[in-house]
Design a protein that fits this description.
By secondary structure, the protein is an alpha+beta fold. It holds the Pfam family SWIM.
């Protein structure tokens, strides 16, 4: 498994843990985030559950390799806080566009700032109060223990690949978020532009194109040489407003990408090289 915290939101998540957790204990937990240690991992309705393989430790009376049950749950945001945040997100095209491309906007926290009851809690964690539940069935009384810390790192790795997981951990699922944004004026307008009418299927008696007979003999010279000469100069190509847009919609760190470098940045460089290659020869 690649290093967690490669995205800015994954890094902020780990930084919050380091702010209220013993750094040595947290670092020990990194070794418990691998697949050989975390035997089961699931996130259901914002609750993170995991089965972590422990060690034999006679000091704690553990003489057989144990399997510990670990649970982590972040503090969900109140309904009125979500309503205000959704209204702010839905009023800014940049936030809606980035979220529609599976990207976490770097100014997303501005949508959660405010004064009054139920506000002041951001999307990303900042202190221990942002975690409603952290427990483990191991005999270690410290919290977090190394097993919980290992699940923290696994969770940060999952956040790198799926930024929408942050909304789920705070109490708003992916589909709930999209439906809520679609109800805002801007979100509804962008959602309408994305929808296109699907053409009705046309019945055919063959999967293959059949040749059509013609009465006139073909003009082989026009076929091979064309009826018009190609222009000697081509109009300059205009750079794309959003480079590699199809790649960006898949997310910066897709599941198959196990390197620390940004996949979107790499593809943008590849697109640029392809566009610039042999440009002077055209």
């Amino acid at each position: 498994m690649s290093n967690p915290g490669r995205t800015w939101w994954g890094s902020r998540f780990l930084a919050a843990l380091e702010g209220f957790t013993d750094s040595g204990r947290l670092e020990r937990g990194r070794a418990y985030s691998s697949d050989s240690r975390i035997l089961e991992f699931a996130i259901v309705d914002g609750m993170v559950t995991a089965t972590v393989r422990g060690n034999i430790n006679p000091y704690f009376g553990v003489y057989k390799e144990p399997k510990y049950k670990t649970r982590i749950q972040m503090t969900p945001l109140a309904a009125d806080a979500w309503a205000r945040a959704i209204a702010r997100i839905g009023s800014r095209a940049g936030l809606v566009a980035r979220l529609s491309m599976n990207e976490m906007p770097d100014d997303i926290e501005s949508a959660f700032a405010g004064k009054g009851k139920g506000t002041g809690t951001g999307l990303l964690p900042r202190n221990r109060q942002d975690f409603k539940l952290t427990d483990c069935s191991c005999p270690d009384s410290a919290n977090p223990c190394k097993h919980i810390a290992g699940v923290y790192y696994r969770l940060a790795h999952q956040l790198d690949h799926d930024p929408f997981l942050l909304f789920e951990l705070r109490g708003l699922g992916r589909e709930q978020l999209r439906k809520a944004l679609a109800k805002t004026p801007l979100g509804n307008a962008l959602h309408g532009l994305a929808e296109t009418d699907k053409p009705e299927p046309v019945a055919t008696d063959s999967y293959f194109t059949r040749p059509q007979p013609t009465s006139a003999s073909p003009d082989y010279h026009a076929f091979w040489h064309g009826t018009k000469r190609l222009p000697r100069e081509l109009p300059p190509m205009r750079a794309a407003e959003v480079p590699a847009i199809l790649i960006r919609k898949g997310g910066d760190y897709p599941a198959f990408w196990d390197r620390d470098a940004s996949f979107v940045a790499l593809m943008e460089e590849l697109y640029l090289r392809v566009r610039e290659k042999n440009k002077t020869l055209l």
